[in-house]
Structures are given as C-alpha cells and as structure tokens.
Amino acid sequence: MRRFAQLIQELELSNKTNDKIAALVQYFTEANDKDKVWVIALFTGKKPKRPIKSALLKYWAIEITQTPEWLFTESYTNVGDLSETIALLLPPAQQQADLHLHQWIEDLHGLEGKDDDTKKAFILNAWNSLETNERFIFNKLISGNFRIGVSAKMLVNALAKFSDLDSAQITHSIMGKWNPYEITFHDLIAGEHVNTDSSWPYPFCLAYALDTEPENLGDINLWQAEWKWDGIRGQIVKRNGELFIWSRGEELVTEQFPELHFLLDSLPDGTVLDGEILAVKDGAVLPFSTLQQRLNRKTITKKELENAPIGFFVYDLLEHEGDDFRQEILASRRKALQQIINNINSGQVLLSPVVEASSWDELAQERARSRELNSEGLMLKKLDSLYHSGRKRGDWWKWKVNPYTVDAVMIYAQKGSGRRANFFTDYTFAVRDGEKLVTIAKAYSGLTDQEIKEVNSFVNRNAVEKFGPVRTVKPELVFEIAFEGIAESKRHKAGLALRFPRILRWRKDKNASEINTLQDLQQLLQSTL
Amino acid sequence: MALIKFTKRGIYCKQGDFYVDPWWPVDYAVTTHGHADHVRFGNKNYLCHSLTKPIIKSRISPDLNVQSLPYGESITRNGVKITFFPAGHIIGSAQVRLEYKGEICVISGDYKIEDDGISTPFEPIKCHSFVSESTFGLPIYKWQAQNVVFSNIQNWVQNNIAHKKTSVLIAYSLGKAQRLIKNLHGVAPIYVHNSIANLNEVIFKAGVALPLSERITPEISKDQLQNGIVIVPPAMRDSRWMKSLHHPVTGICSGWMQVRAHRRWQSADAGFALSDHADFPGLLQAIRQTEAEKVYVTHGFTSAFARYLNQIGTRAEVVSTHFGQEDDEENKVDLNKAEQSSAKKEEA
C-alpha cells in the first residue's frame, strides 16, 4: 500500500506525461504482481464493489474525531474531497500495518454482507494503522474514483514500455472482461484471457476535429463522408452464439436495448460491428433527448419502448467470419458490411449512409443540413484507411457543425473540486424573461486559469448571498454559452434544457442588459421540433 | 472599559493612546513582527522587539524612529504596561501583553507553537482577553513535527542531486528562508536570492546564529547550483532565470501544502507542509493556556474558528483586520482572502 501511495503522489506531482509514464514503469518494475493487476483495474475504472457507503465513513470519522458536522462540512469545502478530508481529520495512527494493496482490497471485499459493527471495527482499525496519505488511498478504495490524470493511453504506454509488448495488444487485453480477483498480471497483459472470452470488444477508432479547410485534405474522391450521429457509440459483438453490446465507456449495455437482441439470430458468429446507438423511427434518427429517456434505466416500460425505439446505425466492420478485419481498408470493410446488413433486412439496424458529393463545396452544403437530420455534422474517412486503435491523426476527421450559442449572465458561482477546490469555477447562467432572470444552464469549463482567477475575485467582491459553497452574485458578467441541442424539460424552471452547455468565451464587451431572452430560446426549440 | 478597540486604523488602546500593528499611519505603533501586513511605513514612532528593529529599519527605512525591548522587559505608556513575549512565528516576532489596572490583554500577531530552531519559542501568557490569528483554523490542518518534514525535504534534495535536477525551494525572504537555512544546514550548500541574502546580513549582524549561505551571483555556475539547494522568494517563480537552471524542480514550503488541491493548483514539483503559523490543535492549545475570557479572532478561517471556540465554551468574536493580506506567502493563497472577505460580508 505504501508503494501505491507513493505512486499516486508521484503521479499527482507532475503534469508531464513522460514523468508519469516513468513513475508507472518504475512501479510496475517494483510492485507485487497482484497489486499491479489492481492498479490496472483501478486506473481503467474497474472499481471494486463498494462494501460501505461513504455516508457511513463520514459519520464514523465525525464520531471518533468529535468534530461538529458543520465543521466537517467547512473542512470538506476547503479540501474538496471526502476521502482526503477524513484522512486529514483523523488523529495520527497508533499502529502500523504494511499490507499490500490487493490485501486491503480483498479484506474490504470480505466485508460484504457483514453487519455495520463489524465493518466499523475493521475501518477504525485500518484508519488507526495507516499514514495520512495511505488513509486517503484506503478511503478512495471504498468510496471514490482515482482521478489523477492518468489516461488509459498513458497506462497502456507504460505497460508497453515495461513489458516490451505491442501497445495495441495491451489496449485490447485490458479493455475486455476480466476479473481482477482472479487473473494474474502476466496473463492480463499477455491477453491470455481474451481468447477464451467471447465478449471482448476492439478499441474504438477515434477521430480528431478537422482543424483546417477540407480542401486541404486533397481529392474528395479519396474520401468517404458519413453523418456524425449524436447518440451512444457502440460495438456489437456476436461470437460463439452470444451477443454483447458495448458502449464507448467500455461498459456492457446489452440488457438496456432489447430491440437489438434479434441480432443474436441474424448476425453470423464472429462478427463485430461499430456503430451508433440511436433512437430511430421509420428509418429516421430522433433527437438525443429522446434517446436519453432510454439510458441507464434498470427497467423499461412499454411506453418508453414505444416513444423511444432504439436502433443501431452501423459504421464499420471490425471482425468478419471470425477474423480481425481491422487491417482491411475502409472500402473493403464497407463492402463486406453492406452484405451483412442487407442480409439482416431490419428497419432498426441500418448502414449509416454515405453522404455523396462531387466537390468539397457540395459536401459543405450537405453538412449545412446536419441539424435537420439530428446529426452533429460529418465524418470524413479516407477510403484506404485501416481501423486504428484509439485516436490517430490523418485518416479520420470530425467535421462538426458549429454549436448553437446564447449570451447569458452569471448569477450563481460554486467552488470546484479537486485541483480547483478553492476557486469559484462552476457557474450558473440565466437569460432574461421580461424583468426577471431565469436560469438555463450550469457550466464549468472553457475558461483559462487566469480568467478563473478574475471571475473568482469578482465573486468574492460581489457575492450577495451565501448558501454553503454556493454564492449568489450580482448579475454582471456576461458569457457566450455554446450548446449542442435544446429540449423541452419539465424539470427546469425555464421549461427547456440545453445539451452539453459550455463557456465559449467571456463577453467583457457586453453588459447584462444585452443578453438573450427566454423567448429567443423558445423560438429555437420550436424550430428544432 | 476594554483595553483595546478595533478601529479603522487598527487595534487601538485608548488608555495608553497607541496602536498595535496599525494599517494607517499613527503617532505610536507597537509592532508584533516584521512582515509587511503588520508593520507599515509612515508611523511617527515604532516600538518593537530588539531583533525586529534592524529588520524593519532595513526593510522600510533606516530613518524610522524605533524604540525596542527584549522579551520580558516592560515600558509603561500613560499607565499601560507594555511587555513583549515570544510568538515563535519568525525571528523577533512578539506577542504584545498590555496591562492596565489589573486588566490584561495579549495581542499575539502571528504565532506558532513548535520550536523552529531559529525563532525564540512561543510562550503562553495568561490574560483576560486574547487576540488570535486563525490562518489554519480548520481541523484538517495538523502539522507533522518539523524534523519529519525536514527529513522529507532532505530526501527530496538528495534525490534531485542524484538525478541531475536543481532543487529550488520557494520561501518568503523573511522567516521561512532563515528557517530553511538553519534546518537544512549541512545537507548541501545553500544558495540564496539577493533579497534573502540582504536580510540574512541584517539578522546575522543583530547576533542571531544563522548558518552561512551563499548569495547567488552570475559567478556561481549552474553545476554548483544543481548540487546545492537554491532558495528564492515567490516572485522568482516562473522567472527566466529559473528556467535557465539545469532541470529545475520547485518545492513549496507552506502549510497550504497539506491539501492536495492546493498542491496541484500551485503546480509545484513538490509541496511540503511546513508553516510558521500554528495548526488547529496549536491554536486551541495556545488559547486554552491563556485562560482568556474573551478571544478576538482576526485573519484566517475566522468565522469557522470563532464558531468552534464558542461551541467548546470559549467566548470568541470575529474582528475584521487587514492582517494576512500581503507579504507572508502563507496568507497569499487566494482562498484565504476569499474566506476573509466572505467573513467580512457576514459581519456587514
């Protein structure tokens, strides 16, 4: 555990990718094999199940430190992280325990189903045996995520450097279904498990946003343009008589979409499709807000099935007749894919259409229609491109339409968490509704550190009211908010909700009387229905 | 009648007709220590501890009219007896004890409980009313013993030297810099920025046993610096000179480094929780030992700390001051200002 705590500290202290990779490689060189498996699991979001609620941890910490609850809250506001707040509040440890990371995880696992007294005794004893920074990690194992700026790619690169294996192969190995309690480190990175497991998906091929004029991409005839759909990117895997649906977040979502289960019978074994999960009616794509009604539901009502029927628009073919097909060029993959989709003959699983154009100008005109089709713009793919693992520059580009924008005034500010725990970084924005202001969105990205400091000092000087970490501020600062879509919403006072709102820029040239009105947004909503 | 009043010029003793650490010019200013938020230019007369005298003459102006006293000795002004007691914050820092007709008030300025090896250690003084800071007045702030922190710094430095990196410690010129020099003496040669070297000379001349450190000049090679410890004030961070060093890595020594969010926001390569202010248990211990009936809480987490004191049975009140706003880098974290201004708003 001490070695893992040291790793976390090293990773946190550097912003440089090379330093982080070096720290990871060093860790993989020194650490216990079972611990390494868990580090990979934790850093790729395979959290062990929570044996104890974080509310209980807080309660016990308050009890043994005799801290009034309001003071705990003040401390938490200052620290910005529950696990860390508890670790700092506790008195120094009276004993030492030098257990490995995997031992702690196994012991915590063993608490499942035990009564609260047993759990409490275990936790208090652990707290009393660990240094402050180890305690923080221990609490995180129970209650949180390790957000320490290690991307999956960085982890894979470190493992590749450490093991001399190919990074694509490692990505593949750690992405699939594996059980950190059982697998050995060697088998995991060598990918022993992926052959025996029919579920494993391939890493998605991702695209960068086009940062130049499309003319610079050369002859349009070398490219294939497709609509960029606004849904959930997904992979459908059919092997050994089993069907699996993966989302891009590496989650298995098979159960959520019964409309696609017929593929179990109509797809041949050894087929993997890349595509977009969408709400589809009569072959047309419905807005994302419709799809949203179907996401993360444990049970689905008949009405929901009717209102938001799920479909799958297929982009690509990754495995064909049991063979990895990713090294074939796009044109060949598309041809084989066409055959498969034709055979399915379904109204819900369709080939995502190619957008035909004989010049870049003509294609730009097509792109202008994106919103009418509930698409976000175009994807440009080179006809001779292979299916890469992850993001690679050059072969695939996103050519999105510009976002909608609205000028709004900031009316609430809240402190951020993590690195920004002491700055007001989360803002709520309002537009004008007659004489009143009505909130339309909350956003917390898009400003530079310097701008955050400026806004922070404005909030400190202009706070009108204080509700815990939230400040009501004088409506003075105007921001241009970009968003991807707009939908009716009963939950929001304004009667509408913006999709993916973020701060585009700070309009220092505007004052609060010049912002948009609720009517402006209602008009936009009507025009998109 | 109370011995002190909080006025817009500063803490005022009417019976004695003088101010303690005023922020606007007055006739007679009693000064707790040499940080700029506690001692300002423009007062007609200054009274401070003997070691603070050369410091403020050097930092503000040699022409200041300064009278000084050693710890424990008193002078009387209009019937009010004024005595300095060590505050343990930095060299020459003092708590000001006022006594008038049996009524005792102690204004502690900034203080810490732990003996840092270079300042005269804090001494608790019994009094009726006590003015306390609360820079780290939340229970998450608990310091490790300084020998633990210094051994961490030592390991960091030695590791840097082995990896051909230059160790740069960021420390305020008055106080933290001397504490580092004293406690890191012998680990590696210490090189200091001009502003620190100038103060060191003053402090050395005043008779404090400060180990030698070398002033950084263009003649000192980058290789020498790489094999030593470089100490510079916060203003030098991100300077072009810093970037010219061999693979510079920065370490910040401040109580704020206790919390990950602060460490990451400062984006230093290393953070060491080493403070010249009392931690939460330290503040409580100091206050308990004064046996004061009333505590005035000045700068820091004022509202939370005062509320806690009241809850544990010590009458406490937040007072608004201009302390903690400049010069002492530990007070420079924006959060602290935010807390102060919000506390001020609450009172208003």
Automatic annotation (TrEMBL), chain A:
It comes from the Bacteria. The keyword Metal-binding applies. Residues 303-433 form the ATP-dependent DNA ligase family profile domain. It catalyses: ATP + (deoxyribonucleotide)n-3'-hydroxyl + 5'-phospho-(deoxyribonucleotide)m = (deoxyribonucleotide)n+m + AMP + diphosphate. Keywords: ATP-binding, Cell cycle, Cell division, DNA damage, DNA recombination, DNA repair, DNA replication, Ligase, Magnesium, Metal-binding, Nucleotide-binding. CDD domains: Adenylation_DNA_ligase_Bac1, OBF_DNA_ligase_Arch_LigB. PROSITE patterns: DNA_LIGASE_A1 (PS00697), DNA_LIGASE_A3 (PS50160). GO terms for biological process: cell division; DNA recombination; DNA repair; DNA replication. Its EC number is 6.5.1.1. One of its GO terms (molecular function) is ATP binding. InterPro entries: ATP-dep_DNA_ligase (IPR050191), ATP_dep_DNA_lig_pp_1105_fam (IPR026333), DNA_ligase_ATP-dep_C (IPR012309), DNA_ligase_ATP-dep_cent (IPR012310), DNA_ligase_ATP-dep_CS (IPR016059), DNA_ligase_ATP-dep_N (IPR012308), DNA_ligase_N_sf (IPR036599), NA-bd_OB-fold (IPR012340). PANTHER family: DNA LIGASE 1/3 FAMILY MEMBER, DNA LIGASE-RELATED. This is DNA ligase (ATP). It comes from Pelobium manganitolerans. The lineage of its organism: Bacteria, Pseudomonadati, Bacteroidota, Sphingobacteriia, Sphingobacteriales.
UniProtKB/TrEMBL annotation, chain B:
SUPFAM superfamilies: Metallo-hydrolase/oxidoreductase. InterPro entries: MBL, RibonucZ/Hydroxyglut_hydro, Xnuc_lig_assoc. Residues 332-348 have a biased composition (Basic and acidic residues). Keywords: Ligase. Transmembrane segments: none annotated. One of its GO terms (molecular function) is RNA endonuclease activity. Residues 323-348 are annotated as: Disordered. NCBIfam families: Xnuc_lig_assoc (TIGR04122). This is DNA ligase-associated DEXH box helicase. It comes from Pelobium manganitolerans.
